[in-house]
Amino acid sequence: MDFHGQKRSNTTHFSTTDPEAGLYNKSVGQGASLSHLGHMISDNRHGLIVTTGISEVNGKAECAAALGMLDDLHASQGVVPETLGADKGYDSGPWMLELEQRGITPHAAMREGPVGGVCRREKKDRPLIAARQRMAVRQADEGYRLSQRARKKVEEGIGWCKTIAGLARARHVGRWKIK
């Protein structure tokens, strides 16, 4: 097939060996590749990975996977963390509001720009905007700074999985086998 001049999408480019993989580009300027999204929750004190997850490639998968992993952690170990540090991929009002309703204080890095966005001023969005505003206030707290510093420990686990464990190029087909 000739895809010259066409935009890449999951309908035109798909894996013949792993149909669950989707096109994903990690940063601006990089080409998209067929992959899955991997997620981990680790202990802040020691960097111990307590739960993992693999999800489909889409814009809302990170937040949904984090909530699912928290549910699994509570069901299997009876653990509910007090705080949860996260990167900018988790900067969304619904996710922060859900964590607050579960009694977990979110410590997520926030994107630059107005809190709530310029086009999200409807009445139904007020609780979501308020959750992000509480997160913006929390950024001045010492606990937030500690969570963001300890967040690097999970990156070491991800790096180990990619280099030593060989998950940079998975040998298994399907998300449940990769997990």
- Tell me the β content: 15-25%
Total helices: the number is 6
The H-and-E topology, N to C, reads as EEEEHEHEHHHH
The backbone outline, from C-alpha atoms, is: globular
Judged by helices, strands and strand pairing, the structural class is alpha+beta
Largest sheet: 2 strands, antiparallel
Radius of gyration over all CA atoms, rounded: 18 Å
* Secondary structure tally: strands: 6
Low-pLDDT sequence parts: none
Strand order of the largest sheet: 1-2
Distance between the termini: 33 Å
State the helicity in percent bands: 25-40%
The overall pLDDT, averaged over residues, is 78
Features:
179 residues, alpha+beta, two-stranded antiparallel sheet, two-stranded antiparallel ribbon, 6 helices
Structure in words:
36% of the residues lie in helices and 15% in strands. It starts with 21 loop residues before the first strand and ends with a helix. It has helices at 61-77, 93-101, 126-138, 142-150, 152-163, 175-178, and strands at 22-24, 33-35, 37-42, 49-55, 83-86, 105-108. It has a two-stranded antiparallel ribbon. The protein is of the alpha+beta class.
